[in-house]
DNA sequence: ATGTGC
């Protein structure tokens, strides 16, 4: 008889698993000296680091293996055994609960018309909406594209359930836009190269843990430090599609300028980054392949949300610190930003400067949004209240909204958890006021559109788009495909500098070969098509655009 | 996306 290959996993954390080869000579009798049970427990101790394995369940069914008969009938190739230190089976009970809340007909809205959408992402969107518990509404934004399991550029609204894997590991990832005092003449054309040269000292850890903890503390004393292991990445952009980009406002026509103060010809810094390793550690801590959903009010749901909120704050503080480090390079004359440079040394009062730097940075910030997060909002959205100053054209209420009824201060309201995975919100999360502008970045070097969300009866006041918009152009090609096809296409060319004839081009800092191609504009959809789809869906207006002048991905400081 | 997971 051949050996049997089974998988063992921790009952309490099923992502922890190991294969076990059971020789034909091992005994099904749990009391035998060479029992399968003994072999499984020994492997659980060494490979899963479970000190005292005591009970064994079969994955999916949850049947406990007790008698020799149980072992004999269940040990076959590819079976998954869940090893417990005494606790009850955690897998299947959830799956049974799940069924009653699944909505196989929940509504799926696709906001893509011109932008191309891969069929795999549609399958992922629909399958997810129809199989996870509590989903009442799903939206595919025009930048929709396939993820490993769940789609990106997607929004899921669910009642009574939280699904951490829907938003992924980069909890709190988003974009923040900051004004600089640079003039466009300092960054236009060939000047971009000079500016790019100034962007140094931006890789690696920022100062000491004491500084970082202070940066992660707000003026009320709340702090979102994740411990030195994760905080050491604070102030770094990261990899993948993350970037910081210097842009010029080429056109802008805001219909209701809420004192944002953005003007044509301004030079702005767009920072796209997240919670680095911290958010991933939160997802990993709470979920496994078999544990993806938490019922509202359960200890897991509350504990996850607490850590989730912390990761969101961390990510926001990370974007601010990235901006500070960039401003230290871009505006060297401003003492508020000196702290951003690791070259500036302080005796013992450096930490005191943090409050000043943060205070001076906030007025520079135009907008800061999370596009990977889960948020509780009143559902369905209702007609928003009018602004205090009534607009002259009241029929245009969709453009002149004061505040949305999204907070739960009207007790009997129904609400949902909006899960955003690569989707921007249409409102300010803390004030619940509609955003008057938000960025829709194209891929590296292509225009960033300036969006203004629209709330109108035609879109049921934001229900149609689940109070969300596209967060970027969206991938048109997988990383693997982009790497192979684009490295061929641009063989022997430097695609990081504008061609000498191109005065409108972008200077790109990207000292990582694979990223050069994986993040090339050709790997993404056309941002104009994505923007047009939002306009055609009636969920946003395009009120202007920015030209990218210097795009910073990653620098090899050793050069 | 990630001090990835083998």
TrEMBL record:
InterPro entries: RtcB, RtcB-like_sf. It comes from the Eukaryota. Keywords: GTP-binding, Ligase, Manganese, Metal-binding, Nucleotide-binding. It is an enzyme of class 6 (ligase). Its EC number is 6.5.1.8. GO terms for molecular function: GTP binding; metal ion binding; RNA ligase (ATP) activity; RNA ligase (GTP) activity. Mn(2+) 2 binds at residues 272, 371. It catalyses: a 3'-end 3'-phospho-ribonucleotide-RNA + a 5'-end dephospho-ribonucleoside-RNA + GTP = a ribonucleotidyl-ribonucleotide-RNA + GMP + diphosphate. Its cofactor is Mn(2+). Binds 2 manganese ions per subunit. It holds the Pfam family RtcB. Mn(2+) 1 binds at residues 170, 242. One of its GO terms (biological process) is RNA processing. GMP binds at residues 241-245, 371-372, 471-474. The active site is at residue 471. PANTHER family: RNA-SPLICING LIGASE RTCB HOMOLOG. This is 3'-phosphate/5'-hydroxy nucleic acid ligase.
């Amino acid at each position: 008889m051949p050996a049997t290959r089974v998988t063992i996993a921790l009952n309490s954390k099923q992502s922890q698993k190991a294969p076990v080869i059971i020789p034909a000579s091992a005994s099904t009798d749990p009391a035998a000296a060479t029992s399968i049970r003994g072999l499984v427990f020994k492997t659980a101790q060494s490979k899963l680091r479970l000190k005292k394995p005591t009970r064994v369940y079969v994955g999916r069914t949850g049947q406990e293996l007790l008698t020799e008969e149980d072992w004999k009938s269940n040990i076959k190739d590819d079976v998954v055994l869940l090893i417990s230190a005494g606790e009850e089976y955690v897998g299947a009970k959830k799956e049974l609960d799940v069924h009653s809340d699944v909505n196989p007909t929940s509504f799926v809205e696709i906001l893509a018309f011109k932008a191309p959408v891969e069929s795999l992402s549609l399958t992922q969107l629909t399958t997810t909406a129809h199989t996870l518990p509590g989903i009442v509404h799903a939206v595919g934004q025009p930048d929709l594209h396939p993820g490993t399991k769940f789609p990106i550029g997607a929004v899921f609204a669910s009642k009574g359930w939280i699904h951490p894997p829907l938003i992924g590991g980069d909890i709190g990832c988003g974009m923040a836009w900051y004004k600089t005092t640079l003039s466009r003449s300092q960054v236009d054309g060939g000047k971009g190269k000079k500016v790019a040269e100034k962007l140094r000292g931006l890789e690696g850890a920022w100062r000491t843990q004491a500084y970082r903890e202070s940066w992660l503390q707000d003026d009320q004393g709340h702090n979102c430090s994740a411990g030195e292991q994760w905080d050491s990445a604070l102030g770094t952009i990261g990899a993948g599609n993350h970037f910081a980009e210097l842009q010029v406002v080429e056109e802008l026509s805001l219909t209701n300028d809420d004192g944002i103060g953005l003007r044509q010809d301004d030079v702005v810094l767009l920072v796209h980054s997240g919670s680095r390793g911290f958010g991933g550690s939160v997802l990993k801590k709470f979920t496994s392949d078999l544990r993806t959903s938490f019922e509202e009010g359960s200890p897991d749901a509350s504990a996850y949300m607490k850590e989730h909120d912390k990761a969101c704050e961390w990510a926001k503080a990370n974007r601010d610190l990235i901006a500070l480090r960039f401003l230290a390079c871009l505006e060297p004359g401003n003492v508020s930003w000196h702290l951003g440079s690791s070259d500036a040394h302080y005796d013992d009062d450096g930490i005191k400067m943090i409050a000043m730097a943060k205070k001076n940075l906030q007025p520079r910030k135009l907008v800061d949004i999370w596009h990977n997060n889960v948020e509780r909002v009143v559902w369905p959205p209702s007609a928003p209240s009018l602004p205090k100053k009534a607009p002259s054209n009241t029929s245009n209420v969709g453009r002149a909204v004061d505040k949305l009824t999204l907070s739960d201060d009207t007790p009997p309201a129904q609400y949902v958890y909006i899960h955003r995975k690569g989707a921007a919100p249409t409102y300010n999360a803390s004030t619940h006021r509609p955003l008057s502008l938000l960025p829709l970045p194209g891929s590296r070097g292509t225009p960033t559109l300036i969006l203004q969300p629209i709330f109108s009866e035609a879109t049921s006041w934001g229900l149609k788009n689940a109070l969300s918009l596209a967060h970027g152009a969206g991938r048109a090609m997988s990383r693997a495909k982009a790497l192979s096809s684009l490295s061929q296409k641009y063989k022997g060319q430097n695609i990081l500098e504008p061609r000498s004839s191109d005065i409108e081009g972008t200077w790109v800092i990207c000292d990582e070969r694979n990223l050069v191609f994986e993040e090339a504009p050709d790997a993404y959809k056309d941002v104009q098509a994505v923007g047009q789809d939002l306009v055609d869906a009636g969920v946003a207006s395009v009120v202007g655009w920015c030209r990218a002048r210097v795009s910073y991905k990653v620098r090899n400081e050793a050069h």
